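Hi there,

I know you've been waiting on this one. I reran it after we fixed the sequence typo, so this is the corrected version. Both the input and the resulting structure follow.
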Amino acid sequence: MIIDAHCHQWNLALGRHAWLDAPDAGPLRRTFDRADHYAASHGLPLDGTVCVQAEESAAELAWLRRPRTSPGVPVLGVVAAVDLCGPQLGAYVESFGDRESATAHGIVPVVGVRDSRMLATGPRPAPSTMALLAARGLTVDLLVPDPGRLGAAVDLVAAHPANSFVLDHLPQVSAPARTAAAHRAALGALAELPNLTVKVSGLRASPDSHGEPLRRLLAAAFGVFGPRRLMYGSDWPVSTPGRAPAASVDTLREHLPDLTGTEQDAFWHRTARTAYGLSPGPDAQDRHRHPGHLPPHTEDGPEAP
C-alpha cells in the first residue's frame, strides 16, 4: 500500500500558473486532472494521494476539492497554496471549513498550506498566523528554493513548536554529498526538530538522482529521522515528465536501506496519514500491480513547484 504524499493537479482554465512560463515547462503547459493521475499511476498500489496546489487560486482550490464522481485514485487531502503574510489569510483559512464536515459531504478536506515564496524572498508569517494554522490542525509544507536556504527553514520550524511542518523534496534540498558523514551532518539540524517530517519527493531522473549518492542520502535520512518521519511523494507530473510515478517508486525501492515490514509501512503510507491527519479514501482498492516492469527514464523537467 502506498500514499503519494505529494502530487500536483491544476486547471489552466481557472487561472495562469506563472511558473509554467519556464523554458523547459512546455510538456506541463496543459491541465492535469484526476483522470490524468489515475492513468499515470497504473501499476501502483495507491491507497490515495495528497494534492499540493501549485499556485494560489480560490477557484482552483474549489476544483481540487470537488467531490469524486468517477473512478480514480482517491485524493485524501489538499495542501492549499496561500500567502501566509497576506491580509486576508485568516478569512481564507476559515473558508476551508471543517475537515470532518467536508469529508462527510464528499468534499476533499484541506489538510495543510504552503507559501512557496516564504523561504525565498518574503517576510516571516506573524505569530498569530502560525497560531491560527496550529489551532485548525493545518500542516505547513515548506518549499526550500535551494540548499542555501535550508537554515531559514530550520529557524522557522524551531520558532513555532506548536505547528506541524513538512519539508518537501529532500533529494533536491540535500544534494548527496561525497560521504555518509557529510550527509548526516547536513540532516542533523532538521532531525533535531520534532515537529518536522520530510518528504522523499521530487526525485529527478538525472545522473545525480541515482546510484550510490542516492543510496547514501537515503541511508543518512533514515538514520537520523527514522521511517516514522519520512514519507514518499512522486511530485507528479513535475518531476516525472513523460513517465509514470512508478519510475520513482522503482528507484526508491532499489536504493532504500534494509527496512522491516513495519518500517516500510511507515515510509510508504503511515507517516503521511499521521503528518496530514488523513482518513482512509473512499473505495480504496488494491487495483494496481508492482511497477517493476517500467523502463528507466532520463529526462529532466522544470524546477518542482
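Quick highlight: Strands lie at 2-7, 46-52, 75-81, 110-114, 139-142, 165-167, 196-200, 230-232.

Best,
R. S.
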